[in-house]
Automatic annotation (TrEMBL):
GO MF terms, alphabetically ordered: FAD binding; oxidoreductase activity, acting on paired donors, with incorporation or reduction of molecular oxygen, NAD(P)H as one donor, and incorporation of one atom of oxygen
Keywords of this entry: FAD, Flavoprotein, Oxidoreductase
Necessary cofactors: FAD
Highest classification ranks of the organism: Eukaryota, Fungi, Dikarya, Basidiomycota, Agaricomycotina
Ranges of residues in domain FAD-binding: 6-383
Source organism per UniProt: Mycena albidolilacea
Superkingdom of the organism of origin: Eukaryota
Name under which the protein is recorded: FAD-binding domain-containing protein
Length: 433
């Protein structure tokens, strides 16, 4: 089936950010939209697992929350442990004065996307697949400032606004000539054991008792995360399935792209808490991985686009959202939520620009202000994730008694409500609203 030859808004990328952008635009009355994606449905490798409070607020503003809340599970706390010892925890219920959603919604990205796609389909907006963009050139055969967006198939779509939601290797960003660098100038991306993160959806022979929906353990420069899937969105309804995440010890070298059960078990034994070990000498009730439903490797990198907006005077407007605009460590679960908020905040701005263009009073300041605001928020999240990685990495570099003293202080301040509220507020994304 051929692509439409012309559109006002072309969204490149149908992950959560691209889909959220379409929902936001439609909600504002912009219906001349085409969404394209380079891969077939269900082939994406990114698997976020939680939606933060600020993002729930944003999704509610475009009428896309009522179908998400019933299938997700509300996480009231995030527990952080040092080895087998409790360290600190958040209490998201303390956010009640600031939001209608004082929790994190545990929901796999695949389910979030499915709900968004169903909503768009109901609105008559489809995703065109698989269509890969190869170039953007100013259109020469129209009086309007538009782009000729060429696809690998040879087809061309004319578009006035091109939204790049096509991931960290964004073709849209590259075609726009926008730099994508670490904001601190660190292009080596050497984060020790945290330089690679392994994700896996697994079932276990002896399911552990978790104190919270999300439980993070760090020790000696490594970290692991274990969280059970909501029953309604589990890949296997006959048993409990967990999202397992782990750092990769530097001595392992390059981890497998899709780790098998043996490799995941090795990471769980070496990096996880004793309660997840399969060694009976360590864990009286050995836990073993029974089945792997999906697994992937993530190379940790921090980068932010030099700018999120550019206006080619002989072409149209290019805007960046989601991973095309910023990437960072998955620690803290901020990536998908930040991208969705990028997208939803863009809707009213683009609608206003379309309106002012029709009136002959268009100004790029609308986009400049939006881009500066979103970039500032991305820099804040990158700083947050780097701080978290720095704390974990310090365990290998610091004198052991100093590590224990540092964590003793954290345990002490973590008892106070003001600290729990501050941590929950920072993780929730509400600080940017």
């Amino acid at each position: 089936m051929s692509l439409p030859p012309r559109t006002a808004v072309l969204i490149v990328g149908a992950g959560p950010s691209g889909l959220a952008a379409a929902l936001s635009l439609n909600h504002r009355g912009v219906n001349d939209i085409v969404i394209v994606d380079a891969i077939l449905a269900g082939e994406n490798s990114s698997r976020a697992m939680v939606i933060q409070a600020a993002t729930l607020e944003a999704l509610n503003s475009v009428g896309c929350l009522d179908k998400l809340l019933p299938i997700g599970e509300k996480a009231q706390a995030l527990f952080m442990n040092h080895g087998s010892s409790y360290l600190i925890s958040t209490d998201f219920s303390l956010l009640a004065p600031y939001t209608k959603y004082p929790f994190g919604l545990v929901l796999p990205q695949t389910a979030t996307e499915a709900v968004m796609l169903e909503k768009l389909d109901h609105l008559g907006i489809k995703v065109w697949r698989p269509f890969k963009v190869v170039s953007l050139m100013p259109s020469q055969d129209t009086e309007e400032q538009m782009f000729d967006v060429r696809f690998e198939s040879g087809e061309i779509v004319k578009a006035k606004y091109v939204i790049g939601a096509d991931g960290a290797n964004s073709v849209v960003r590259q075609e726009a000539g926008i730099a994508f660098k670490d904001p601190n100038g660190d292009e080596k991306h050497d984060y020790g054991n945290l330089s690679q993160i392994i994700l896996g959806d697994v079932s276990l022979t002896s399911p552990p008792q978790l104190a919270a929906r999300f439980s993070i353990t760090s020790y000696d420069g490594n970290f692991t995360l274990m969280a059970p899937f909501p029953a309604s969105t589990s890949p296997d309804t006959s048993r409990t399935v967990y999202r397992f995440a782990s750092s990769v010890p530097a001595e392992d070298g390059t981890a497998p792209h899709a780790p098998n059960i043996e490799y995941l078990q090795s990471l769980m034994d070496r990096c996880g808490p004793h309660s997840l070990s399969s060694d009976p000498a360590i864990n009286p009730h050995p836990t073993r991985i029974e089945k792997v439903y999906w697994s992937s490797r993530y190379r940790t990198r921090s980068a932010v686009a030099e700018r999120y907006f550019t206006h080619k005077l002989d072409g149209g407007v290019i805007l960046l959202i989601g991973d095309a605009a910023h990437i960072h460590s998955p620690i803290g679960g901020q990536g998908m939520s930040l991208g969705i908020r990028d997208a939803i905040s863009l809707g009213p701005v683009l609608k206003a620009h379309i309106g002012s263009t029709a009136e002959g009073t268009a100004s790029d300041k609308l986009f400049e202000d939006w881009a500066a605001s979103r970039r500032k928020r991305a820099l804040s999240v990158v700083a947050l994730t780097k701080q978290a990685m720095g704390i974990i990495n310090a365990q290998r570099k610091m004198w052991a008694p100093l590590v224990w003293c540092t964590y003793a202080v954290l345990r002490f301040v973590g008892r106070f409500t003001f600290f729990k509220r501050m941590l929950a507020y920072r993780l929730s994304g509400l600080a940017e609203i």
